[in-house]
Design goal:
The complex is a heterodimer of chains A (223) and B (276). Chain A is built from two helices and eleven strands. With 223 residues, chain A is mainly beta. In chain A, a hairpin with a 4-residue loop joins β2 and β3. Chain B has one domain. In chain B, β10 and β11 form a beta hairpin. In chain B, strands 4-1-7-8 form a four-stranded mixed sheet. A four-stranded antiparallel sheet of chain B has the order 3-2-5-6. Chain B has a four-stranded mixed sheet with strand order 12-9-15-16, with no helix packed on it. Classes of the chains: A mainly beta (223), B alpha+beta (276).
Chain lengths: 223, 276
């Protein structure tokens, strides 16, 4: 009996070793992606002002108290569900990484919302949610199934006010990172959209980055 | 058209009469943007542009604008609020040269001699890095040189009337105070929480008069939004396990299988040996 227990223990130990080996081999370097696309400068668009060229009736000069306005932040998204792909993830606010790319949760089971851009439910612009397709901390995450999403699929985002924002997928693309249209993903002025981003394509073992981004765009269904 | 617009202005509206009359059908990109800040304490004024009343009964601490104007030079005169015309200006007349595509704030303020003057500032509307905001500090007060402290550290030193300093900072909140240059207290202004808003140039004006008792020093805030840059990309994978051809996995898997085989054989052999 005692001997029978030995073999599974050895196998378990080997499997543990295998996992350690994998993680060690795949530990990310902090090297900056050499071919990371840099976004073109965004045109400055200061707030709209009266159109002085159409002069009848004469425009009024807005006069105001120059104080910092009390800001009412948008409700932050907290949950993302894509039923057809069995994706149901927590959403956390993220900013910018040291290398200038979008910051992400180290947990591939958590999607990051780009907190400086629009939130789901805002009247204009893209709410960008991104998650690691796989990460050191958590292995392969739900966004590995993002590439399998179909056009027309339902997507739901719940915000911290418990409002549910419903979307319908309008496009699914795998795009080389080199030259990817990042400025259009992060657009703040166009029609409201939800943009889900992860990685895909070939793995570059030198740069420790995937070659492509998988980008799912969805539009509000108004439901 | 000029006549009608002028009539509107005389009728007491805050009409952009003189300016609109000079504006052609140019696109917005060819225009300059102008805001006007009134930073002379205790003086309500009228503002004349190219001889025409443009801002009526403009009060201290107020901001007007922004206005889209054709590029060009504008003659601005600031008079007492009860003046009949701009023949006896309290400030100016000054020529404001506005270039296409630029963003300006003209400030009526006190000099360090206590007399009203005007300064034209060009607002920095260049793109900010993703995750950063811009803070511009302008000294337009009758006060000596100042330092601006963020917490206890001087982030701006020796700023004099009518100069400015521009800083790009990570978005967030900074506790800032204004002190006489080379000191840390007492605070002339603040401490106050200053929000560094991502993609926004937050322009702070220290205005008023520090030589009066009580001091009329005050802070005004102008914000220019929409300057944000975007993240350079999305690096959303660390392992290569979800790649189209996840090559890194196989050597390890094969190696593990081989090890597993060796181990199993060892176990089996030992078992065989013991059973002998």
């Amino acid at each position: 009996m005692g001997r029978r227990r030995v073999a599974p223990a050895v196998i378990a130990g080997l499997l543990a070793g295998l996992l350690v080996g994998l993680v060690a081999a795949c530990a990310p370097s902090r090297a900056v992606e050499p071919d990371a696309p840099s976004s073109p400068p965004h045109a400055a668009s200061p707030r709209p002002s009266p159109d002085v060229t159409s002069a009848a009736p004469a425009p009024r000069v807005p006069v105001y108290d120059p104080t910092a306005p009390a800001q009412t932040p948008s409700a932050a998204p907290v949950r993302l569900v894509v039923p057809s792909q069995h994706i149901d993830m927590r959403v956390v606010p993220v900013g910018v990484a040291d290398d200038g790319s979008m910051g992400l949760s180290e947990n591939a089971f958590e999607a990051g919302w780009y907190e400086y851009g629009p939130a789901p439910g805002d009247p204009a612009g893209n709410a960008v949610l991104a998650a690691h397709v796989d990460s050191v901390q958590s292995g392969i995450g739900p966004f590995a199934r993002l590439r399998g999403v179909s056009v027309g699929a339902r997507v739901e985002v719940t915000d911290d006010a418990s409002d549910v924002h419903r979307y319908r997928v309008v496009s699914v693309h795998k795009i080389p990172k080199d030259g990817a249209p990042t400025s259009s993903w992060f657009d703040r002025d166009g029609a409201p959209r939800l943009v889900l981003v992860t990685c895909g394509g070939e793995w570059n073992a030198k740069t420790r980055h995937y070659a492509d981004n998988v980008v799912v765009t969805a539009e509000p269904t108004g439901g | 058209m000029r006549a009608r617009l002028l009539a509107g202005a005389v009728a007491g509206t805050l009409a952009l009469a003189g300016l609109a009359a000079t504006a052609g059908p140019a696109s917005a990109a060819d225009d300059a943007q102008l805001s006007v800040f009134h930073g002379v304490p205790g003086l309500t004024v009228d503002v004349y542009v190219n001889g025409k009343l443009t801002l009526d009964d403009f009060k201290p601490g107020k901001m007007a604008g922004p206005l889209d104007l054709s590029a060009g030079t504008y003659k601005v005169a600031i008079t007492a609020a009860d003046a009949k015309d701009d023949s006896k200006p309290a400030i100016g007349p000054v020529d404001l040269k506005l270039a296409a595509g630029k963003n300006y704030t003209a400030v009526a303020h006190l000099g360090t001699d206590g007399k009203p003057t005007a300064t034209l500032f060009t607002n920095d509307t260049s793109t900010t890095k993703a995750g950063q905001g811009r803070i511009t500090v302008r000294h337009v007060a009758n006060a000596p040189a100042v330092d601006v402290l963020a917490g206890k550290d001087a982030v701006i030193s020796g700023l004099e009337n009518p100069d400015e300093k521009v800083l790009d900072l990570p978005a967030g909140t900074v506790s800032a105070s204004v002190v006489a240059a080379g000191t840390t207290k007492p605070a002339l202004l603040g401490p106050a929480d200053v929000k560094v808003t991502e993609g926004t140039n937050t322009i702070l004006y220290a205005w008023g008069d520090a030589t009066t008792d009580p001091s009329t020093l005050a802070l005004a805030t102008q914000m220019i939004t929409g300057l944000h840059g975007n993240p350079s990309g999305v690096q959303a994978g660390e392992l290569g396990l979800a790649a189209d051809h996840p090559t890194p996995v196989w050597p390890f898997a094969l190696g593990a299988l081989a090890l597993l085989g060796v181990a199993t054989m060892a176990v089996v052999r030992r078992r065989v040996t013991q059973e002998d």
